[in-house]
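Before drawing any conclusions, I looked closely at one protein's amino acid sequence and its C-alpha cells, quoted below without any editing.
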Amino acid sequence: MSLEVIQIIEADQDHARAVDQVLRKASFRTNIAFDGPTGIQDIWKNRPALVVLDLMVPGIGGKDLCRRLREDPQTKSMGIILVTAVTSEDARVAGLESGADDILTKPYSPRELVARVHAVLRRLAASAPENLDDLDDDLTLDATQYVTTFRGQHLVLTKPEWQTLLRLAKTTGKVVPREELRSLLWGNDTLSHDRELDQLVASLNQKLAGRDGVAPLIVKVAETGYRLLRKEQALPLSA
C-alpha cells in the first residue's frame, strides 16, 4: 500500500465508494467524506497528499473548500483535483482559479482518474520547496512557506498562480515557453488551456499591481511564451 493518503469528498455515496475502490486498487490509502465540513475535519486529521473533491459537495461548496485549503498554511501545498459534471471552459477556469491543481470532468474512466492523481503527485514532488529570496528589491518568494511578497505586501495567490510565478522567477528576464507552463500546470492534458493560461497571468499581474498601479511585470512574448521582467526592464509606475 502506498504511503500517500487520498481524501475523497463526494456527496454521491455510490460514486464515492467507486472512486475509493479504484484508488485502493491503485495502491493508495483512502478516506471518504460525504460533505464539506466532514471533509475538512478529515483533512486536518489525516493530512492527505491529495484531495479528490466534488464541485457540488454539500455544506461547503467545492470551490469554497478549495479556497479554504489554499489559504491555510497547513494545507496550501496539498494536491487538489476538482471533479465536476460541468464541461464548459468557464467552469474549468473558475475551478482552477479557486486553487485546484486539476479539473476532472464526469464521466471519467478509472484509468483517467488514477493517471491524473499520479500526474498531480508528480508535479508536487517536482516542485519541492526551494528558496528564491529577494529576486530584486521588490519581489520575494519563499517556497518553504509558499509565501509571496511584493513591495512589502503579502500576496494571496492560488496554487497555479504561485507555481507559474515561481517558474518565471527562476529565469527572470527570459522567456518561458507556453508549452512548458501548460505542462507544469496541466500535465499531459490534450486540451490547449491557452485561454486559462492567459487569464491566470492576467490575474497574477493584477495582484502584483495592487493599489500602486504597477505596470505589468509578466509580459506575453508574441505567441511564444511569457517573461517576468527584471526590475530594470519594468515600465515605470503609472501616474
Notes: Residues 110-126 form the longest helix (17 residues). The chain has two domains: 5-126, 131-228.
